[in-house]
Amino acid sequence: MKRLKIVLIAFVSTFLFSSCGYNKMVEMDEQVTASWAQVENVYQRRADLIPNLVNTVKGYAAHEQETLTGVIEARSKATSVNIDPTNMNPQMLQQFNQAQEGLSSALSRLMVVVEKYPDLKANQNFMDLQAQLEGTENRIAVERRKFNQTTQTYNAYIRKFPRVIYAGWFGFEKKTYFEAQQGSEKAPEVQF
Length: 192
Fold this sequence. Notes:
This protein is mainly alpha-helical. It has seven helices and no strands. It has helices at about 1-20, 20-60, 65-80, 90-115, 120, 125-160, 165-170. Residues about 185-190 have low confidence and may be disordered.
């Protein structure tokens, strides 16, 4: 009789835990983490392009030191904010987003300065860097979208019955989405 109980408990446990989706939750959690790493990867690519861009502009617009310093400082702030995807929360994501928005704003000011220097705009090195930066901005948008899609799939999976019960037991919690900053729906004003 005791042996039958053990076999029955083992059978029921195997059935419950194999159908609870634990392995799938682990897989999906890892996909969210990998997706976030890719978001950080493209932001790092942008940060890596900036010193070359600043150095190229420096040669043409040496007296625009304030703008160049602003870009360098914004890059430093943006690269200092790191998020651990295992404990991502809205506050950390907002801090990360604010640092990245600061860098985007500084780059916009730099591009306004560039408009004053026709020789710089015609410089092949600058044009290549500008094209790479534009491509990187597109990559950032794509990777943020992929991150949000992966996060949505994961969140929906762990919130469906009966996984909603098991997810909590195993520590799988809802992940935070990457959201645009307030006011980003308005186009920035560019003044020459």
